[in-house]
Amino acid sequence: AVVSTQSTGDDPEIINNYIQVSRIFNMFVMYGDTFLPNPGSYDELYYELLRQHGVFDSLNETGLKYKEATHKEACKDLLSNLHNVRAIVNHFSPKIEAWSTANKIST
After folding, report:
1. Model's pTM, two decimal places?
2. Is 71 helix (H, G, I), strand (E, B) or coil?
3. CB atoms within 10 A of CB 97
């Protein structure tokens, strides 16, 4: 699923929905150890975050696009909430790519 970033800057309800979704992911990243059933669940969570990084990239682009225009505070909140997820993606993606290259595996 890809997030459409067209015409969202004029709709605060959509941006607020993005904020709520990003908060949920952030909650799982930050506090998942208190409610996820086992450590393997974190692996699965990180796998899905990496696999769907395009969605988070699109959300980030939306926040960047509108943070100085319409709905400044909401977009800044969105960008803040995406920080941890984007940090995970930015940390693990190069490592996975390097491992894949070294082992001649395409991803």
Report:
1. 0.79
2. coil
3. 11
